[in-house]
Amino acid sequence: MRQGTDGQAVIRFRAFGVSLLLAHLLLVGWLTLRPLDVPWMNAANLSPFAGIRADLSLGPAAAFRRIGGGLLLLAPLGVLLPMAGGRLYVSPWLSLARTVAAGSLISLAIELGQTGVPGQVVDVDSLFLNTAGVALAHVLVVPACRARLRRRGGAAGAHAVARRGHEAPQGSIPQVAQSSIPQGSTPTISGVGMAP
User: What is residue 1's DSSP assignment?
Assistant: First the structure.
């Protein structure tokens, strides 16, 4: 019974993560891919870090706003992508690599989509900032949350197993792990020899 409710909780958690992810992607798409009426536009920036240097030359307040906006635009993906995946037991490095790769591909798709949108300018530095924001959010939030959920799930699972063993109704057969049931010997076919 407990495993069923745990499984349903994981499904609800993943569904919640997927719905938040879709909502965030719709918001990002609306912000970055809608046509803008502007009196003038900058040229596309295809030189790495030229836009960041230009932002830094505007002063601390403007640089913080522009660079921070680039970092924060896709940063929630660093948490929402692993949440939508729903895996608790995964290598932290593999999770980071997958999340950063997905975030950078989404950022690249946005930049490529902006090539045909009036008023939007392609900026290679946005790709770098968006990817850095995804990585930073993932590193700061996901490992701690996974550890906490594993501890909570492990303690709940241990209590459920102990409770099942002590509270089993009379006449019921205790559940045994499938791997501990002997399976018998491997069947052989007569007349077929072993390979050398």
Answer: -
DSSP string of 9-38? HHHHHHHHHHHHHHHHHHHHHHHHHS----
Is residue 181, in this structure, part of any structural domain at all?
A: no
Distances (CA, A) of 156 to 30, 85, 160: 42, 22, 6
Neighbours of 74 (CB within 10 A): 27
Containing domain of residue 102, as a range?
2-34+45-166
CB 43 within 8 A of CB 103: no
| 190 within some domain | no
**pLDDT, tens only, 54-79:** 999 999 999 999 999 999 999 999 99
Query: In the numeric block, which tokens belong to residue 168?
Result: 């089993």
Q: Domain for residue 40, yes or no?
A: no
Q: How many domains does the chain have?
A: 1
Q: Is residue 139 part of a domain?
A: yes
pTM of the model: 0.73
Q: Tell me the two tokens of residue 86.
A: 């729903």
